[in-house]
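Recall the central idea of this unit: under ordinary conditions, the amino acid sequence of a chain determines the structure it adopts. In this exercise we apply that idea directly, starting from the sequence alone.
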Amino acid sequence: MATIEERTGRDGKAVYRARVRLKGHPAQSATFDRKTDARRWIASTEAAIREGRHFKTSEAKRRTLAEAIDRYAREVLPRKPKSGPKQAQQLDWWRAQIGAYALADVTTATLSECRSKLLAEPAPGGRARTPATANRYMAALSHVLTIAAREWEWIETNPCARLARLSEPRGRVRFLDDGERARLLAACKASPSAHLYPVVVLALSTGARLNEVLGLRWPQVDVGAGRIVLHDTKNTERRVLPLAGHAREVIREWGRVRRVDTDLLFPNSLHPDRPIDIRGPWNTALAKAGIADFRFHDLRHSAASYLAMNGATLAEIAEVLGHKTLQMVKRYAHLSEARCVSRAHVAMLDNMFGESKILIK
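Accordingly, the structure predicted from this sequence is:
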């Protein structure tokens, strides 16, 4: 059923409000200056609904981008405990820029202009924003608009889909050479912090991230079976780390002096329910070892690089590191030869500790 209602506008001129009601579909309405345009709209809208081509264009005109972001923040971000806070910050930027826009006016051209503005602005720390940062901001907004199209039916298509990603430089590959590794391990062993050496050994021999190592609890560690099970990972999937060689012996010895008031492997001395903060001892060890331009996360790059140089394929390195795709490990392609990896490959990493295999007393 369709109706046209004639009204008088504020300027005294007649306007025509057309409304379409079809059973099983929400009512659609639009206002026109001419009655012929209203009739034409009714005919096309009814035909589109019957043929299944109708997307709720009235929703796109009535809803703003800020409304979409707010609903996404309520319904979706709580399900993303790891990435949610960062994405909320990125979406706040979009809300400030074009939040008042109707979704119908959020076009690919508009998004391209906003991205250029983002790149031109300095980051909060004063540094220039990179193409990688712009891509992350676009990805955060793109998921909002995908949900708005696919689940809420507020828009027909996601305008971000037609915007090409910016080219990003290949990821950083900084790994320890033999001399650096020996000096760093010696400095860690000599550190006043007893935690530092086992933390670094674990990171270097398994490729685990800092938060994964510091968050370890004894129920996750099976020294007898030679494995560590990570339940809380960056990609939310469980991962098993082989525990072999020197790392296995270090953790075996570490367990003999474990605290009884917590099940954390590396608890804070004052607050045993929290992991220890090793930033100070780590920076001191780097300085004593004379190692520059090296971050803790580069221990993960070092483990991956050693695997590649020992013959592991990119797919196998991705499995060890917990990456879902090969994109993140392509940076190691120049170091890799296509061979088979298994626990034996991970065990090869044990050779890097050399004379450092003296257990902690």
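The chain has three domains: 2-54, 62-162, 178-356.
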